[in-house]
Amino acid sequence: MKVVLVACILSLLHLQQCRALGILYPKSNPVREIQSLDGLWKFALVDADPEEEGTEDYINLMAVPSSYNDISTDRKVRDHVGVVIYERNFFVPESWQGRIIWLRFGSVTYSADVTINGDTALEHEIGHTAFVGDVTKYLKFGANNHISVEVYNVLTEVTIPQGVLVKLESGRVKQNHSFDYFNYAGIDRPVLLYTTPQTYIDDITLRTTIDGTTGIINYQVVVKGNATYTSKVTILDEDGRDIATNEKTLNGSIVIPNVNLWWPYLMDPYPGYQYTFRVELFDESTALLDTYDQLFGVRELSWDNTSFTINGKSIYMRGFGRHEDADIHGKGLDLAMALRDYSLIQWIGANSYRTSHYPYAEEVMDLADSLGILIIDEPPADHTDLFSDQLLENHKRSITELINRDKNRPSVVMWSAANEPQAQKEEASDYFKEIIAHVKSLDKTRPVTVANVNEAENDYSGQYIDIISMNIYTGWLQHDGDLDVIEAKAVDVAETWHKTHNKPVIVTEYGADSLEGYHMLPSFVWSEEYQNQFMSSYFRAFERLRQEEWFLGEMIWNFADFKTPESISLFSYRQPKSSAFLMRKRYWGLANELDNVSLPEDLENFVIGKPTRVRHEL
Fold this sequence. Notes:
Elements: E1 2-4, E2 34-36, E3 39-46, E4 53-64, H1 75-78, E5 83-92, E6 100-105, E7 108-109, E8 111-116, E9 119-125, E10 131-134, E11 143-152, E12 164-167, E13 173-176, E14 186-187, E15 191-196, E16 200-211, E17 214-224, E18 230-236, E19 242-246, E20 251-256, E21 275-282, E22 288-296, E23 301-303, E24 308-310, E25 313-314, E26 317-321, H2 335-348, E27 352-354, H3 362-371, E28 374-377, H4 389-406, E29 412-419, H5 428-442, E30 448-452, E31 467-471, H6 486-501, E32 505-509, H7 528-545, E33 551-556, E34 571-572, E35 575-576, H8 578-595
Parallel strand pairs: 26-27, 26-33, 27-28, 28-29, 29-30, 30-31, 31-32, 32-33
Antiparallel strand pairs: 1-4, 2-15, 3-4, 3-5, 5-11, 6-10, 6-15, 7-14, 8-9, 8-11, 12-13, 16-17, 17-20, 18-19, 18-21, 21-22, 23-24, 24-25, 34-35
Helix pairs in contact: 2-3, 4-5, 6-7, 7-8
């Protein structure tokens, strides 16, 4: 089969639109069924210049979900630029006749063209967010069906994130980009086929506030279809007990007396408490028509020019920048790795991270909700430049998909509209004015930020955001090796940001890398000793800044190794470097001071039982 690769560059004008709403995660229940299409798919590499016609080059099988780049030993697969094709067969039972059949991808990076039994069923552009569509008319019931997914990984000046193609002297086409992580691609999150009735619950929006000991849930439920129905909304606690009911409306409010609030990890003995919001639709004979359970936490955020609080208590974020990145499967969902990561986050005493620099898997976000980990949620807009109208529309669409997906998550306490954009350019002003206005048009219950590497006097985005996020690399990318300049510079940059915009400030990135096992005295860059001393210099700066109410927290870059020419991390292969033990002492020390948390018994190793007298000979 021949493929014209130019046609794979998807334009908004030609996309079969996936629904803006209706991105609820598929769940089995008495009226909905799910079939997973995860597993081994037939895989083809289209070996051609991305701007020319190519042919399939099958290399056998590919795991779904996973990035395809690192699974093969073939360099050609890892460095491929252009189209790859996934194919498989799947069976649709006869019993599914009469229902709507939906096909949902958790993420395909960067764009996808999905055909079922030879007909185009779905198209989507922008990785890391889910898309879904009604595929009923393309299916054969009681028979095998064939699905093919063409995945295109090329980035351009109008994609999110951006990139450019370069043809090398050898003739090979290479993808260049300004972001510093590997451009993994493929079907990297679950693929699910599921059913709903013809009249179904399409979307749920929940907003929570607190009045004393009472939780107030404002809700809006969208139902699609033509059937006549009655509805019932029920709140269930963690033990499954009904505690509140409303049978009058799908757009209203419901109260929870003596509410259990959702608290972050280490801010309360019982973090991450979640209720279930259950919606039920009944037909005219009172038979169950459709139902959906949505987990949620009751918490209230507030912020002003000097503070950020949850449930009336000040938040001090201690956490990480991260990447979804692991050996072999790249950015593919790995639940075992997700559990390991959260175990390490809890071990070190962190309470937060930013989804740098793209939305993370829904299953990973579910764990943040249940464990009480605070999230700054970010679209795939990294090092944004060349501010065009088409880029603006794609950027806004990526934000819309992110917020529609994550709007009900208690863990998500802030939206980051971009990471390290070229906001020093004057044209960035109108661009980010519109971007931030778009975020706030979708959700006014969370503050908005931009992770900025510029200094305040060279920025056009800070005037529009609610909280200043600053990335600073004094002692590493600037003044590398100069430990003595770190403290004063970090304090000065943060104070200047606050004075310029009169807004709270958080450090969302700082860090220096080390080679595991490389030691040097006196310390020097890349040694573990330098990394520890570097961190201690920033700790001194943060202690000075913590005297100011407007300083909201610190997030080191990066949590764990990821594929890039430069890696700055505390965990190598998810095992701690010496710097992780230093960070653990700081984060648990902060938790002890701010929230009266007991320190772990293994925070310090035993050294000596009682002081030893030192004799001085004259």
